[in-house]
Amino acid sequence: MAGQLISIALTVDQHDGGDYFWVLLESFDNSMEFESLMEAAKGFPTYADALQAGYAVLRGLSEDLSVGPREELPDADQGDAADAADGPDDSALVEDGAVGEL
Questions:
Q1: Residues 6+ apart with CB under 8 A from 43
Q2: What whole-number distance in Å separates Cα of residue 97 and Cα of residue 99?
Q3: Taking the alpha carbons of 88, 89, 91, 92 in that order, is the dihedral positive or negative?
Q4: Ramachandran quadrant class, 50 (left: phi over 0; alpha: psi -120 to 50; beta: rest)
């Protein structure tokens, strides 16, 4: 069973060098305030290229595009014990690799 829909926005910033970078922003608790979630590790020559690349990353955050990216719920069999064993919150979407952290 999927948890609550994660509110993620996609935008594009232009850095001083002229390159365009996609940025994913996340809102918590249904507020209208967004925090940086992920940013492109390298720039793109055009706004359209950055937007398209960011959209591909955003789509990749959902296992099922008919319901969108969802918070993970603990397994019913394991309950709170699974949460304690996992350590820090594992619902964060930022990982090292193709994207950079802000």
A1: 15, 17, 18, 19, 20, 21, 50
A2: 6
A3: negative
A4: alpha
Segment-wise mean pLDDT, segments of 10 residues, the chain, 102 residues = 83 96 90 89 98 96 89 64 41 39 42
Residue type at 7 in one-letter notation:
S
Find out whether 61 and 69 touch, Cβ atoms under 8 Å: yes
Half-sphere exposure (Cβ direction) of 7: Cα atoms closer than 13 Å: 9
Give the predicted TM-score (pTM) of the model: 0.66
Residue 31, token pair as written in the block: 């507020």
The 3 state secondary structure assigned to the chain is CCCCECEEEEEEEECCCCCEEEEEEEECCCCCCEEEEEEECCCECCHHHHHHHHHHHHHHCCCCCCCCCECCCCCCCCHHHHHHHHCCCCCCCCCCCCEECC
